[in-house]
């Protein structure tokens, strides 16, 4: 009799423990059926403060039709800046003091995953509010380098998948739809085969992928301008002569670093990307001196000539990079924001 009572008591205790383990009382319990994607619409009172930017012919314009030739800068990844204790409005105020009109925010896939989309969006939200207050537009850039088709990439920080890339833009476009401060979505930083080391992809295949991403973005956000990069680390737009992206209201990206071609530069720039400005808006989302030797003696001639070329062609441009560690670095330290020799050249170009 006692044995039966003991067994009954044990069964009762076991049942109660099981209920706790599988019930809502357990704080570790994951109610997977309540999960939702990150990126609900960003509730902000500043959406309409900045004038909306759109595409008209081969130019970026505001709603009054005024041509917008942006002079901007790429910052380093917000995750890096925040981890180094520098993600604050002062950083953006310093950029504003230089006379910068457009900031490019490069989101590295590894940082997006490790911080988690929910936490990363908090950083972007802050940048949107700071930039709106300072009158600066934003490019959100999915900062990967490599072959999105083969999913082979230059370095681990750039590793992603087409699925993750699509989900990133689904999240971003859903969250920031209708916020005028975010003027551009740069769909993929630098397509590259790394001299054959990263597999193969044709322009037609790349075109199909970009058109699909544009359609995905526009399912949520019909006003922010998608930007599509050329091949060869976002330098070469020659395929547009025969196969332009089959979507209206977009822009094209080039990164004309000095090592992309030999001198004389200008005729080769014409062939690689300059020709495209006859029909399409083009933006150089990265320009900069050579990383191995970023002094004026080696690169000053390039700096003056690329600025003159881009301005004459009506191509907006952004220097790389407003950071003391990433190269070529425009500032010496986080403490003073003192410009390097290269950074001073960049700073002077905004005047």
> What is the CATH architecture annotation?
Alpha-Beta Barrel
Let me know the average pLDDT: 93
CATH superfamily: Glycosidases
Estimated structural class: alpha/beta
Percent helix: 25-40%
Would you count the extended β strands for me? 13
Low-confidence stretches: 20-24
Folded structure, characterized:
- The protein has 351 residues and is of the alpha/beta class.
- The protein has a single domain (58-349), classed as TIM Barrel, CATH 3.20.20.80.
- It is built from 11 helices and 13 strands.
- It has helices at residues 2-22, 78-83, 89-97, 109-115, 117-134, 162-176, 203-218, 231-234, 265-272, 296-313, 341-349; strands at residues 54-56, 59-61, 71-75, 102-107, 137-142, 145-147, 152-153, 182-186, 190-191, 225-229, 251-253, 282-287, 316-322.
- An 8-stranded parallel β-barrel has the order 3-4-5-8-10-11-12-13, surrounded by 5 helices. The protein has a 3-stranded mixed beta sheet with strand order 7-6-9.
- Helix 3 (89-97) crosses helix 5 (117-134), helix 4 (109-115) packs across helix 5 (117-134) and helix 10 runs parallel beside helix 11.
- The radius of gyration is 24 Å and the shape is globular.
- The chain starts with a helix and ends with a helix.
- 39% of the residues are buried.
- Residues 20-24 have low confidence and may be disordered.
């Amino acid at each position: 009799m006692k044995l039966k009572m003991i067994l009954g008591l044990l069964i009762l205790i076991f049942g109660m423990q099981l209920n706790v383990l599988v019930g809502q009382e357990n704080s570790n319990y994951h109610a997977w059926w309540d999960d939702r994607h990150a990126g609900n619409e960003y509730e902000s009172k500043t959406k309409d403060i900045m004038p909306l930017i759109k595409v008209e012919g081969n130019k970026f314009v505001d709603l009054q039709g005024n041509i917008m030739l942006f002079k901007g800068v790429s910052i380093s990844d917000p995750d890096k800046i925040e981890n180094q204790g520098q993600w604050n409005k002062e950083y953006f105020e310093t950029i504003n003091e230089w006379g910068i009109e457009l900031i490019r925010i490069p989101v590295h896939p590894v940082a997006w995953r490790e911080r988690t989309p929910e936490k990363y969006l908090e950083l972007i939200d802050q940048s949107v509010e700071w930039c709106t207050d300072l009158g600066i537009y934003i490019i959100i850039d999915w900062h990967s380098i490599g072959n999105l088709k083969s999913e082979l990439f230059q370095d681990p920080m750039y590793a992603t998948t087409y699925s993750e890339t699509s989900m990133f833009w689904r999240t971003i476009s859903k969250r920031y739809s209708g916020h005028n401060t975010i003027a551009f979505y740069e769909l993929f930083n630098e397509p590259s085969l790394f001299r054959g080391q990263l597999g193969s992809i044709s322009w037609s295949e790349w075109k199909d992928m970009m058109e699909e991403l544009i359609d995905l973005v526009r399912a949520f956000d019909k006003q922010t301008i998608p930007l599509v990069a050329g091949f060869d680390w976002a330098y070469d737009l020659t395929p547009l002569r025969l196969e332009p992206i089959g979507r209206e209201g977009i822009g094209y990206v080039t990164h004309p670093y000095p090592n992309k071609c030999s001198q004389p530069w200008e005729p080769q720039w014409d062939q690689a990307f300059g020709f495209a400005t006859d029909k399409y808006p083009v933006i150089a989302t990265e320009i900069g001196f050579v990383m191995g030797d970023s002094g004026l003696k080696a690169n000053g001639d390039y700096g003056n000539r690329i600025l003159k070329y881009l301005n004459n062609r009506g191509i907006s441009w952004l220097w790389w990079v407003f950071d003391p560690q990433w190269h070529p670095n425009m500032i010496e330290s986080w403490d003073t924001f003192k410009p390097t020799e290269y950074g001073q050249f960049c700073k002077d170009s905004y005047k």
